[in-house]
Write a structure and sequence with these properties.
42% of the residues lie in helices and 17% in strands. By secondary structure, it is α/β, with parallel strands linked by helices. The protein has a 7-stranded parallel β-sheet with strand order 3-2-1-4-5-6-10, with helices on both faces. Strands 7-9-11 form a 3-stranded mixed β-sheet. Strands 8-12 form a two-stranded parallel ribbon. Helix 1 crosses helix 7 and helix 6 packs across helix 10. The structure holds nicotinamide-adenine-dinucleotide and 2'deoxy-thymidine-5'-diphospho-alpha-D-glucose (DAU). Nicotinamide-adenine-dinucleotide binds next to helix 1, helix 4, strand 5 and strand 7.
Length: 337
């Protein structure tokens, strides 16, 4: 199989590339990635040693490039991780999100149609369902996204479903919950708080800290979506969660405890605009298919914290960029007194 992994230089995509090369050693894997601030060639360090791997730098919105890559490499399937992914950035610059997450997805679908590819897997998110007070969303629930990020991801999903309905394309969608693990950009809650705590910097906890997410270890998500790719039915949507629903306060305490740092590092800061209160997924459909998670939350968090302790050369340079400066000014400096 010749697999095109778009967005494969990012956090989840790079873990999937590692899994794919290990689990399907006969495959050829091509990554197409624009290398935005979130894309990092260092994430593909191991993959680059494999003769079955190729990297192409480019934008999924560029239809000509996408077509050329598909033709040159004889691509059979596309797995689309490429997206703008950070909710806080989407509140500042919504236009980048609409472009990549909606238009980029449509460009890929058009290529799937033109070249009659065998499969297209869209990597989506639980955020498209919106917030839920109790229980978990099912795949059949209506979409009610609330941030420019989740609205753009929902737009991408709707394109995928429309291409299925209209052209009968062999598409699948996975919607996963909050991932964590090594190589996650240190703007997201867990890597930001772990790296700040390592450096004895404040941890900016939004609002009352009681917003809740279901946390899944990145390797479990990658195994899950690989499972769906093999066993899933074209045209179907599959939730991928772990059932680890935790408040941000609980996550913060667990990180501080693992690093033996004081609670005085926590800074209460103004809430995110339009902050969704709780995300949770009903996992019946995916579990009935035989798809299970392997990682217990505590061991996964320990492994993650240890990775950031062992790899400061990976994350330290990322914390000096323009956004991180803006972020610090916005949320931390104002509350330092
Ligand atoms: P990430 O921000 O770490 O990586 C995104 C990657 O996409 C980067 O390598 C970036 O360079 C690339 N990219 C961005 N725009 C591009 C474009 N126009 N053309 C080509 N490449 C482009 O993201 P992630 O956390 O690894 O998320 C991957 C996917 O999984 C996304 O689609 C996201 O919506 C989805 N998802 C993420 C989570 C999570 O918790 N991180 C949860 C559910 C779903
Ligand atoms: O649910 C899946 C989604 O999870 C993915 O689709 C997104 O790509 C990914 O970014 C993530 O979105 P969240 O907004 O849930 O993740 P984030 O890490 O930004 O925030 C997690 C929670 O922590 C959220 O309630 C906001 C809070 N938070 C976050 C940051 C960055 C803080 O309290 N302080 C912070 O500094």
């Amino acid at each position: 199989m010749r697999v095109l992994v778009t967005g494969g230089a990012g956090f989840i995509g790079s873990h999937y590339v590692d899994l794919r090369l290990k689990k399907h050693p006969q495959d050829q894997v091509v990554v197409l990635d624009k290398l935005t601030y979130a894309g990092n060639p260092a994430n593909l360090k191991d993959a680059k040693k494999n003769s079955h791997f190729t990297f192409v730098r480019g934008d999924i919105c560029n239809a000509k490039l996408v077509e050329r890559v598909i033709q040159q490499h004889g691509i059979d399937i596309i797995i689309n991780f490429a997206a703008e992914t950070h909710v806080d950035r989407s509140i500042l610059h919504p236009e980048d999100f609409a472009k990549t997450d909606v238009l980029g997805t449509q460009v890929l679908l058009e290529a799937v149609r033109k070249f009659k590819l065998k499969r297209f897997l869209q990597i989506s998110t639980d955020e498209v369902y919106g917030s839920i007070e109790k229980g978990g969303f099912r795949e059949t629930d209506p979409l009610k996204p609330s941030s420019p990020y989740s609205a753009s991801k929902a737009g991408g999903d709707l394109q995928v479903l429309a291409y299925r309905h209209t052209y009968n394309l062999p598409v699948l969608i996975t919607r996963s919950s909050n991932n964590f693990g090594p190589r996650q950009y240190p703007e997201k809650l867990i890597p930001l708080f772990v790296t700040n705590a390592i450096e004895d910097k404040p941890l900016p906890l939004y609002g009352d800290g009681l917003n809740t997410r279901d946390w899944i270890y990145v390797e479990d998500n990658c195994s899950g979506l690989d499972y769906v790719l093999e066993k899933g039915k074209p045209g179907e949507i599959y939730n991928i969660g772990a059932g680890n629903t935790k408040t941000n306060k609980e996550i913060t305490s667990a990180i501080l405890k693992l690093l033996k740092k004081p609670c005085s590092l926590i800074r209460r800061v103004p809430d995110r605009l339009g902050h969704d209160r709780r995300y949770a997924l009903n996992m019946k459909k995916t579990r009935d298919m035989g798809c299970q998670t392997q990682w217990a939350f505590t061991r996964a968090l320990q492994t993650t914290v240890q990775w950031y302790l062992d790899n400061p050369q990976w994350w330290q340079p990322l914390k000096t960029g323009e956004y991180m400066k803006y972020y610090k000014k916005q949320y931390v400096d104002r509350h330092r007194k």
